[in-house]
Design goal:
This protein has 14 helices and four strands. By secondary structure, the protein is mainly alpha-helical. The longest helix is centred in the middle third of the chain and has 29 residues. The N terminus and C terminus are likely disordered. The structure holds zinc ion. Zinc ion (ZN) binds next to helix 4 and helix 9.
Length: 332
């Protein structure tokens, strides 16, 4: 029996989904190139999380513990990196997370990749930028209480950002229209972080209330994840939390789709709108193009395809492995 594995970022399912859907927000001059590489952008949506295990300098890129900086952090912390370093030191900023500055840094890396017509850099940096922007949309990436460990809610991180998107993400409506030009990428990164930070209290409070009223012996169960059996929140508990959050996860995911697309689009504009079609080595076949056109149409109508199994993820990951008998609370 395996216990639930804790995640430090949107689960793989959500990251795949968000980078993939962001491609459909792009305008004409970009969409053909990005559609051509949509599987790369989807697959590498999770590479920054994998990198954390082999490169410790990657870790602070994924969060910004705003509440370390007092009650009103978004007025207290200077937005410019150099000003923030002067005030708090680089060590402190690294300790409590550098997410908004990582978005800014990666954004300018993407601008340069476009200017240099460097296909592999454009793709890798786009995938990474999409990941960081998506992370900024997750409320629990903005707090020191990132897994509810300060309020006896351990496990809430994976519940909110992995279990709920996996169980309900297939039914969300992600259609957000076209990507928009962002005048100030750093400012926008702080806007996203601030809006996520505002949700932190609700994320924790709603689960706390649910925990009080939900039958304790039905909160956890043994579930089958691929070939493994693990103890995890029961589908019924996930359902109740999803309902009580009143669409919050869907709203944050929609915000991520729009912003990922908008960051990609703005970087391309800032690089002088290079001709991306010249950077396509192997055009898609007619069948591939037709399939993507259908996927895009579906997205526009508020639906999504099942993620291709090639991403190593089944779309219905959670299946109850026990026959109603609740498992004991896992030791998180
Ligand atoms: Zn992450």
């Amino acid at each position: 029996m395996f216990l639930i594995a804790l995640c430090c970022s949107w689960g793989f399912y959500a990251h795949y989904r968000l980078n993939r859907l962001a491609v459909f927000t792009l305008p004409k001059g970009m969409s053909e190139f990005y559609l051509n590489h949509i599987d790369y952008l989807t697959g590498h949506a999770v590479t920054p999380d994998k990198l954390r295990y082999i490169d410790s300098t990657e870790i602070p890129h994924h969060y910004f513990n705003a509440d370390h900086y007092g009650k009103d952090p978004f007025h207290t912390v200077p937005q410019k990196w150099d000003d923030a370093v002067k005030r708090y030191s680089a060590d402190t900023l690294n300790k409590y997370g550098t997410l908004p500055w990582t978005i800014q840094y990666t954004y300018y890396k993407l601008v340069n990749a476009f200017k240099n017509h460097d296909t592999s850099a454009v793709l890798r940096t786009s995938a990474f930028l999409g990941h960081y922007v998506a992370d900024a949309c997750v409320p629990l990436h903005l707090t020191q209480n990132h897994d509810g460990q300060l309020t006896q809610q351990e496990g809430i991180h994976a519940l909110w950002e992995s279990r709920l998107p996996e169980q309900f993400g297939q039914q969300y409506n992600y259609y957000v229209g076209k990507a928009r030009y962002l005048d100030n990428p750093l400012w926008q990164a702080f806007i996203i972080c601030r809006s996520s930070f505002k949700c932190v209290d609700s994320v924790l409070r709603i689960e706390r209330q649910l925990n009080k009223t939900f039958p304790p012996d039905q909160k956890y169960t043994t579930v089958q994840r691929g070939k493994r059996k693990i103890t995890d929140y029961s589908p019924a508990y996930c359902r109740a939390y999803q309902k009580a959050l009143n669409g919050m996860v869907q709203r944050r995911m929609r915000m991520a789709v729009l912003n990922i697309g908008s960051y990609w689009y703005s970087a391309w504009v800032d690089a002088g709108q290079p001709d991306l079609n010249k950077m396509i080595d192997t055009p898609l076949t007619i069948t591939q193009k037709q399939k993507l056109a259908q996927e895009q149409l579906l997205y526009k109508s508020g639906h999504v395809i099942l993620l291709p199994p090639s991403f190593g993820i089944t779309n219905k990951i959670i299946t109850e492995a026990t026959s109603g008998r609740a498992a004991a609370k896992p030791a998180f």
